[in-house]
């Protein structure tokens, strides 16, 4: 069989990378073969004198990529890097390095702070129907996992204070990949109130505000402390004011009342 007749169809073990992917319209290994074939043409095809050679390549590379937990996004990055780095088709080892090029620790730290802040905002924001916000974007999953390792310290200290811990966490994340970055857990939207519930909340809010105003006026008009204690102690009054302010703010946020 001539090299011109070669296809990427084979009986290689069907790993995840050898199964069709919806976004590609083919398996990731077929996509990768075709991209490297397009980039290196005869240089690439001459490496596969038979269908069995193609099958061996598919199985071996899929196994190596999965062992390193290389994601589809990283495979695409690897192809782009190969076009810049290699005049000849890469070996599996070279391709793995192209998928995960060396990271600048300080640049990665800045990305971690920015994207983790964005993720915190997303996880605390309830989106209305049809509303969208920009999600966090990571150039490399290891940056996310390293950021997760540092936790709150990521926001409390600068790079110069954390660089030893950060480099260690980043090296560990690179050495032991944990896979792709998981999507953020978005906050649930506030439940929609019926008109009857909305009106009931308004009435309760007005009644509570009226009681607090009445007590406040009594204290300001010189009611003796002993008498005032029949209603609320000073600390209870302040707590009630705070609770009422929070309740009003929630009602305004839900559109039950206007500011």
Distance between the termini: 78 Å
Overall helicity: 55-70%
Shape type: elongated
Order of helices and strands: HHHHHHHHHHHH
What's the number of helices? 12
Radius of gyration of CA atoms, rounded to a whole number: 30 Å
Main beta-sheet strand count, sense and barrel state: none
- Mean pLDDT, nearest integer? 79
Runs in which pLDDT lies below 50 for 5 or more consecutive residues are 1-12
* Quantity of strands, as a count: 0
Strand content: under 5%
Helix-strand category = mainly alpha
The tally of structural domains comes to: 3
Secondary-structure blueprint of this entry?
Elements: H1 28-40, H2 42-45, H3 51-67, H4 72-85, H5 92-99, H6 105-123, H7 141-150, H8 153-156, H9 159-175, H10 195-220, H11 225-228, H12 234-254
Tell me about this structure.
The chain is elongated, with a radius of gyration of 30 Å. Helix 1 packs parallel to helix 4 (about 70-85) and helix 10 (about 195-220) runs antiparallel to helix 12. The chain has twelve helices and no strands. It is mainly alpha-helical and about 260 residues long. It has helices at about 30-40, 40-45, 50-65, 70-85, 90-100, 105-125, 140-150, 155, 160-175, 195-220, 225-230, 235-255. Helix content is about 60%, strand content about 0%.
